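TOKENISED FOLD:
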Amino acid sequence: MARFQYADSLADFPVNSAGKPLTNLDINVWTSKTGGALVTDLLDASGTPSTVARSDDFAGIAFSGPDGYSGTLWLEGLGGVRRRVSPVGTPERLTTIETGLATEIADRQTAVDDAIGQADDAAAARIASLRAEDDPFPQYVEFMTTDSSQKGSRNWVADSFPTAAQGAQDFDTLDYYGA
């Protein structure tokens, strides 16, 4: 999972009662403003494991919270007052979301492709089985031509009309002359 970064803004720095910024100060991290659990699974700004957040040489604070945690945390420095910090790892969060969505979309596309493949296979099998079945009642039409003297000379199964090479003509309607 991802660790989300906390603090790391111009407003995140500890000061003493006179308002002077405090450098290299160890700051406890808590899960709530009062009570809650002390958080000790942290990474400092360089990615080194730490049990506290620490202000740097310029009094800035930046740290990563526990693995997979993205809720509000509370910083407690001198005097026991806790101040709220929220995760600022939006690019990391978006990357995590994008990766999850890309995986879900790929999985769904695979499922759709599989379903289409199965439907294609089923349709092809059904068509093949229909072609293989013998029709016990074939429908016949007589060979048709504009020359009425050729009536009754040949019978053709309805789905296999004679080709032009066999003397067939184009007709708008089919006339039945009997077998």
About this structure: Helices lie at 90-132.
